[in-house]
C-alpha cells in the first residue's frame, strides 16, 4: 500500500505489439527509476493505450533488477508526460485528457500543443513580446504578400519537431528558392521560376498539416553557420523554476536549421558566443537570455497550466538580437552530454523526480 501511494507514471509512446512493446528513452527512465527509489518513489513507464478506466489500472513496465518487467498497477498518483505527439495522437488524446482531468492524478506538467498556441500566449506579455518574431497563420495569400515585402520568409509546421518541415522561401533573380527540410527531415533546395509553380509546390508541401509563417531571420554566424541556444528550465524540489543549463546547437553551413536531429552538434555557450560576437555584445546577449529564461516559464505557466520543464530555443541574429524561436514542453537532454556538462546533465534528470516529490508532499499536506 505504501508503495502504491508514491508512484510516478511516465507516460510514453510504446512501439511493437501489445505483448512485446518497447519504448524510447530507456536510459533516461532507468536513471529516473534509480533517483526515484532513493526518494521512495516508484517509477513505472506506461502507454495511454494500456489504461483501463473501469478497473483504474494501467499495464506498464518497471525496472526490477535491471530488467524492464511488465506489470499491472493501480493508476499512479503522478504522471510525467513524455508522450511525444505522433501519428496516433488523435486516438489517444481523449485518454490523455481523461487522465489530466482525473481528480486523483496530478500531471507534473501539461504538454504544450504547438507553436501557434505558445506564440499567442507569449505575445500577451509586454516584456516577452519584443523577443518574438512576428508570427502568422500560413496562407498562400500571406506568403505572397510577405515575400513581396520581405524577400525571404520561413514556413514551419505548427506541431513540428527536430527541424522537419521548416522551409525558407526566398525571392531571387530567377524566381523563387525553397530551402529547408522535408516532412521526414531530409534537407532539400529547389529553384522555381514562376509564382504559379511556387504556389503549387507550397500547397503540396503544406498539405495535411497546419503551418505558421515568420520573417526569415539571420540566425547564423557571419560566416554562415546556423545556430541557436537551447535553455533547459525546470521546477526544483521546492516547486520553483530554475535554469538547469544552456548550450548552443550549431547546424551545417548549407542548412537553415540547427537541430541535433538534422545533423547539428552541441557546443558550450560562452565559448561559442565569444568566438563570434564582440565582447560587449556577448555580455548583452547573455543578459537578455538570462532574463527571458527567468520571465518566460512563470508567464507561460500562468496562462497555460502546470509545467515541469521547458526547452527554450533562442535564436541570435547577425546583429546580436535575441529571438524566442520555440518552447518545448518535452525537452531532450542530449546537449549536456555532448558538451560534457555533467552537472547540468545530472540535475536535468534529478529535478523531475524532486519536483514529483514536492508535489506528493503538497498533496499530503493539503
Ligand atoms: N524565423 C526563422 N528564421 C530563421 N531560422 C529559423 C526561423 N525559425 C526557425 N528557424 C530555424 O529552424 C530551426 C527549427 O525551428 P523550430 O521553430 O525550433 O522548429 P522545430 O520544432 O522543428 O525544432 C531553428 O532552431 C532555427 O535554426
Ligand atoms: Mg526547435
Automatic annotation (TrEMBL):
PROSITE patterns listed in its UniProt record: ATP_GRASP
Alphabetized GO MF terms: ATP binding; metal ion binding
Keyword Nucleotide-binding among UniProt keywords: yes
Keyword Nucleotide-binding: yes
Protein keywords: ATP-binding, Nucleotide-binding
Record-annotated ATP-grasp domain positions: 124-360
Pfam families: ATPgrasp_YheCD (PF14398)
SUPFAM superfamilies assigned: Glutathione synthetase ATP-binding domain-like
Gene3D superfamilies the UniProt entry points to: ATP-grasp fold, B domain
InterPro entries reported for this sequence: ATP-grasp (IPR011761), YheC/D (IPR026838)
Protein name per Swiss-Prot or TrEMBL: YheC/YheD family protein
Organism: Brevibacillus laterosporus (Bacillus laterosporus)
Amino acid at each position: 500500500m505504501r508503495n502504491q501511494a508514491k508512484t510516478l507514471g511516465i507516460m510514453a509512446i510504446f512501439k511493437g505489439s501489445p505483448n512485446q512493446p518497447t519504448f524510447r528513452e530507456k536510459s533516461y527512465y532507468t536513471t529516473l527509476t534509480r533517483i526515484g527509489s532513493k526518494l521512495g518513489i516508484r517509477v513505472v513507464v506506461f502507454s495511454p493505450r494500456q489504461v483501463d478506466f473501469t478497473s483504474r489500472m494501467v499495464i506498464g513496465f518497471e525496472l526490477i533488477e535491471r530488467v524492464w518487467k511488465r506489470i499491472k498497477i493501480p493508476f499512479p498518483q503522478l504522471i510525467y508526460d513524455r508522450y511525444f505527439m505522433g501519428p496516433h495522437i488523435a486516438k489517444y488524446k481523449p485518454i490523455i485528457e481523461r487522465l489530466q482531468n482525473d481528480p486523483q492524478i496530478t500531471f507534473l506538467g501539461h504538454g504544450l500543443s504547438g507553436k501557434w498556441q505558445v506564440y499567442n500566449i507569449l505575445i500577451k506579455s509586454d516584456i516577452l513580446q519584443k523577443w518574438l518574431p512576428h508570427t502568422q497563420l500560413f496562407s498562400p495569400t500571406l506568403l505572397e504578400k510577405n515575400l513581396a515585402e520581405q524577400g525571404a520568409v520561413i514556413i514551419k509546421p505548427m506541431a513540428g519537431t527536430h527541424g522537419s518541415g521548416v522551409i525558407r522561401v526566398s525571392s531571387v533573380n530567377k524566381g523563387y528558392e525553397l530551402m529547408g527540410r522535408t516532412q521526414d527531415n531530409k534537407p532539400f533546395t529547389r529553384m522555381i521560376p514562376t509564382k504559379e509553380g511556387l504556389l503549387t509546390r507550397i500547397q503540396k508541401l503544406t498539405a495535411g498539416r497546419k503551418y505558421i509563417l515568420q520573417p526569415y531571420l539571420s540566425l547564423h554566424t557571419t560566416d554562415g553557420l546556423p545556430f541557436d541556444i537551447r535553455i533547459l528550465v525546470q521546477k526544483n524540489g521546492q516547486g520553483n523554476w530554475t535554469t538547469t543549463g544552456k548550450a548552443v546547437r550549431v547546424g551545417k553551413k548549407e542548412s537553415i536549421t540547427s537541430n541535433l536531429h538534422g545533423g547539428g552538434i552541441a557546443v558550450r555557450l560562452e565559448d561559442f558566443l565569444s568566438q563570434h560576437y564582440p565582447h560587449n555584445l556577448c555580455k548583452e546577449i547573455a543578459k537578455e537570455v538570462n532574463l527571458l529564461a527567468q520571465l518566460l516559464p512563470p508567464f507561460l505557466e500562468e496562462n497555460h497550466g502546470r509545467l515541469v520543464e521547458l526547452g527554450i530555443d533562442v535564436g541570435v541574429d547577425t546583429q546580436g538580437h535575441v529571438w524566442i524561436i520555440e518552447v518545448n514542453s518535452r525537452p531532450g537532454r542530449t546537449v549536456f552530454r555532448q558538451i560534457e556538462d555533467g552537472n547540468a546533465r545530472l540535475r536535468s534528470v534529478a529535478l523531475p523526480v524532486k519536483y514529483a516529490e514536492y508535489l506528493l508532499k503538497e498533496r499530503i499536506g493539503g
